[in-house]
Amino acid sequence: MHYAIIAHPLSSEFQQKLQQTIGAPINYLLVSELRKLSLLNTFFTLRKLNATKILIPLEDSNSQTLLPTLSMLAAVAKTKSIEIVYPDFVRKNNKRSHIIKNFFQVIVASCKSLIAAQKSQHQLKNLLATKRINVSANNPSAITMYLNANLWFGVKAGGSVGHIAGIVNNLADQGFKMQYASVGGKTLINPTIPFTQIHPPKFFGIPTELNYYFFNHLVFKQLSNEYQNLPIHFIYQRNSLANYAGVMLSRHFKTPLVLEYNGSEAWVAKNWGKPLKFHNLAVMAEEANLKHAHLIVTVSDVLRDELIARGVAAEKIVSYPNCIDPKIFNPDLFSKQQCLELRQRYNIAQDATVLTFVGTFGAWHGVEILAKAINSLINHQEAWLQKNKVRFLLVGDGQKMAEVKQILNHHKSLNSYVTLTGLVAQAEAPTYLAASDILLSPHIANADGSKFFGSPTKLFEYMAMGKAILASDLDQIGEVLKNSLSINQCPTQPPSVENSELAMLCKPGNIEELVAGIRFLVENREWREQLGANARKEALAKYTWEQHVNAFLTKLPYIEDKS
Q: Looking at the structure, do residues 348 and 252 belong to the same domain, yes or no?
């Protein structure tokens, strides 16, 4: 049996090519799943594999940063061969003798990261005790820097990709001289926009989270040097874990900082992932960003209220939902033949009714609730599924994939009703939506009882593609789709031109209502078409990136110190 140890989900395309290259089935071990175990249990899990071969596939060049750590994990397993597979599918044996070199690389990286974290703690204490600099955005002929300081690895998919591209491209369309700086390349970003490749650390140390502080200092050092002789209009940074490079650059260049805040990364780690060992330090970095940003752009009123509760002045905040690029999410761009070809790729009949979920299988997406609803339909209403030629298309991969597979995989007839595509590139997402009939947004409430603060980009992409939507009535999702059909009051007559409803809403986490909504939309094609047309009209009227960008550009005159 062949196993692959991976730090992040691989794209379906890369997995297919990898299996063709290896010529044998591959079982994947995700590092984030291993991290949930104790050190001892991780050791025994790896020792019990009895693998013929352990693979370390690297889908992108940045992933080589993780190679020493992945190699050390692979060396624990009982296997005859450990093999590194590079992005171009060149294969290289990784001898066990290299474990000593890997060990010292990790030790050195760990020491550097610990020193960087200590330096950050000192800097952050000073920043939190220092006033924001008094500057204004008064040089429109200068460059505008978009800083994406996320340490990204692997294929770029999900709402964050569309959000970044939407902001960068629209600012450029409005005449700003954009410079985009990122580790992860220019996914969906206009190729004419100048790009600065941020260099990640050469190797990762442990604990993992301390690497982000080391990276923070690398970002500042690189960009402060490369942009030294360039006048900067303002810096726009997407808030990311343990990174306050935007604050340091803002103060270094004496230029305003616009911070995009999509929620507390420390809270996300605690509630949706693995709690941080240095939680308080990560919170200090967030507080420094919030204190020194001259303008904060957020995507929901729940987040706006959170920021105000954290002491941010209300006039310093712009709240506007996520949006879409109408040039990309346009159903008229996709022919019937293109949609047919995508269905054929997954052996889906031309006349099937396709219900699609697209996402990164995060803790907030509710995809496990959808899996339970599908499970219920197969167990109790399989004749109905067959009669209506229903197929579920679940596009993506991530944290909840293992749970989804566990819920679904015991059905012998599973492949007749459900397709798990794996991770697909963000640029391919519109084609999947165009080839679908009904789009699913089963988001769930936060487990700790706090308000759902998200603004799911996929919701607006669904709306723009003009397809019927079945969504959870949850905070902003329910607000955006408030003029919608209710599960408890399903219409018995076809729609008329006067019907302006946008979607069908169900209670978050309620499997019975999700099933009822699925049944109604499958059985009522006319309603599907009406809801889809209404939703697209609403998206174009209110939720384009141009409108989002204009909302915070009107605040640019505020960019001066009023504290």
A: no
Angle CA 318–323–324, to nearest 5? 150
Helices (H), 254-366: 265-272, 279-292, 301-309, 336-345
Is this model's pTM higher than 0.85 or not? yes
Evaluate whether residue 441 is within a structural domain. yes
pLDDT per residue as tens digits for the range 456-506:
999 999 999 999 999 999 999 999 999 999 998 888 899 988 899 999 999
Handedness of CA 91, 95, 101, 102 (dihedral sign): positive
Which among 57, 233, 265 has a CA at the least distance from the CA of 150? 265
Identify the burial level of 197 via C-beta atoms within 10 angstroms of its C-beta, where 0-12 means exposed, 13-18 middle and 19 or more buried: middle
Q: Counting Cβ atoms within 10 Å, is residue 533 exposed (0-12), middle (13-18) or buried (19+)?
A: middle
Share of the chain above pLDDT 70, in %: 97
Q: Looking at the structure, do residues 378 and 490 belong to the same domain, yes or no?
A: yes
Residue 102 pairs in a beta bridge with none
Cβ pair 86, 67 in contact under 8 A: no
For residue 381, give the CATH number of its domain: 3.40.50.2000
| Residue appearing with tokens 């219409």 | 491
Q: Is residue 470 in some structural domain?
A: yes
Is residue 511 a contact partner of residue 470, using CB atoms and an 8 Å limit?
A: no
Report the distance separating Cα 515 and Cα 517, nearest Å.
5
Alpha carbon 552 to chain centroid distance?
Answer: 23
20 lies in some domain = yes
Kindly give, in sequence order, each residue whose CB lies less than 8 Å from that of residue 429, ignoring residues fewer than 6 positions away: 157, 358, 395, 461
Please check whether residues 471 and 352 belong to one and the same domain.
Answer: yes
Amino acid identity of residue 71, one-letter, is S
Nearest to 268 by CA among 288, 295, 240, 307: 240
How many domains does the chain contain in total? 3
DSSP 356-382: EEES---TTS-HHHHHHHHHHHHHH-H
